[in-house]
Hints:
By secondary structure, this protein is mostly helical. The chain contains 14 helices and two strands.
Amino acid sequence: xxxxxxxHIRTEEAPRLPAPISTTGVIGWMRQNLFSSVGNTVLTxxxxxxxxxxxxPLIKFALIDAVWSGSNREACLPQDGGHGGACWAYVEAFxxxxxxxxxxxxxxxxxxxxxxxxxxxxxxxxxxxAPFKKLNAILFLVVFPIVSYxxxxxxxxxxxxxLPIVETAxxxxxxxxxxxxxxxxxxxxxxxxxxxxxxxxxMPIIKLVSIIFIEFWRGVPLxxxxxxxxxxxxxxxxxxxxxxxxxxxxxxxxxxSAAYMAEVVRGGLQAIPKGQYEGAMALxxxxxxxxxxxxxxxxxxxxxxxxxxxxxxxxxxxTLVLIVxxxxxxxxxxxxxxxxxxxxxxxxxxxxxxxALVFWTFCFGMSRYSIFMERKLxxxxxx
Length: 383
């Protein structure tokens, strides 16, 4: 008979012990990604020192030594000959101009309604699980542009002035930046898709026209396009025919961005295996059903990073409209420097810092949404 004192049989499951603290949480992530080897540790320390040397003066200027309230330049002048911090009181004083430009103050409520409608329609449209997606898309792409146009420009029926006319020459600030960026983004994507399909077409004329269009616009700097659309285009129009300057800028920016978008989409089309085309044709699908149902959904998923990168570049390029007399956000900030009421050594730095924060917020948001959609659609390599 076996001696049961020499061994023990467990009748209950042993308690589960937590993983070592050095392998989980923040400490585990740092050990794995920052201090996994001697070389990585040295690079991490050097990176921290460089970041500190850059971030510490910025934090001191923007927060610690900053002036948050005041009625004029006296509040932001350096004291005792020292270096002054950011003059956020100046930003507060000019904030309405940065957002609305020279839009009449009594009509600003119209711009606020456009901002609200834009956010209210864009947020659910960007949520994959939101209901009524088709209705939302129709409202955003069809109804919203029409309503925004009449809200911003005005509405007159005969002698009845429903909304006073506001010329686009007094628009400015973030309003102009968003109008140009959103219009360019929404219009350039379908036009770019059409050009990409045209460049891959087997019909020689359509292919040639698409290639000429794409290569022409990609070979011309955007600043030249803006000059041509604003200054040169009116010279070629019949006498008495004219276009609004903002409309000319919108057309130029859209065509310029569409050429780059076409090459991004073409890269996605070329990445689709030939078997997908053959399988679609074997099912009896014609060209447009094949593209709409099978090819384009796969191609656009593959090039989400390239599409969003083009959108981000377009959003930042809106600052170039200043050279043709359109005062976007950066243009309004630069024009505010001429006001002697707030002329201080730190005014310019504060204005550019505010512009950088606004542009970074929008661009970072688009970048993070791109990453979210990549993970949602399971495209590319796993992060």
